[in-house]
Write a structure and sequence with these properties.
mainly alpha, 52 residues
Length: 52
């Protein structure tokens, strides 16, 4: 039987850009596979996680 090695990696990503360019939609698409073209402008900070 083969032995499997599991390596855990943690990546932290910071998205920076001008207002209204789609940072929150990009995050939502990556984390939840959802896209809302009619979303409101985010004021403040938004966090999301995804395990791969």
């Amino acid at each position: 039987m083969a032995a499997y090695r599991v390596d855990d990696y943690l990546f932290k990503l910071v998205l920076v850009g001008g207002c209204g360019v789609g940072k929150s939609n990009l995050l939502s698409r990556f984390a939840k596979n959802e896209l809302n073209p009619e979303s409101k402008t985010t004021i403040g900070v938004e966090f999301a996680t995804r395990s791969i």
